[in-house]
Amino acid sequence: MVLAVAGQAAMVTLQVVVQENAAVTGSWLTRLIPLAPMLIGMYMVWRLFLSPYVSFGQDRLRVNNIFTYYLVPYHLITALEGRTALTLVVSGYGRLPVVALDAAPLTGKAKRDTVAQELLRRRDAAVPRAGHGFERRSTLGLPEWLGPVTSLACFLVGGLASVRG
Hints:
The strands form 2 sheets. A 4-stranded antiparallel sheet has the order 1-2-3-7, with no helix packed on it. A 3-stranded antiparallel sheet has the order 4-5-6, with helices on one face. It is α+β, with helices and mostly antiparallel strands. The chain is elongated, with a radius of gyration of 21 Å. The protein has helices at about 1-25, 30-50, 110-125, 140-165; strands at about 55, 60-65, 70-75, 75-80, 85-90, 95-100, 135-140. Helix 2 runs antiparallel to helix 4 (about 140-165). It contains 4 helices and 7 strands; from the N terminus they run H-H-E-E-E-E-E-E-H-E-H.
């Protein structure tokens, strides 16, 4: 996570330098051309490194992977697998990798083991409840793409304003 935040800060710094240099020349294209790949890069760093997480609910575990999230009732978890990464074996749904708890050096095996112990504790105490079943949903909705699109629109408006001004 630290590397991801540092990478995004470096991209923002580089983009500010590029935009300042382009403002001196006044060219709209010199502002726009480096902007699009930078926004896509920042978005992908966020999706790959900052978005995945695991959270414990009252009746279900939420696994927020890169492009999907799962709500898994504790009582459906039959086993935990993986030596460095965590994989849930869910009754009726197969194996579910937990991307947020991978084998990255900064994540550490200790975090994976702590989450696994808490998950086993909650699974043993779980009581099935009606209406709290397994869910799988895509996370490519409005909140994810709205930020990059809004940023791009702001830079386009700023570029057009500098060309006309």
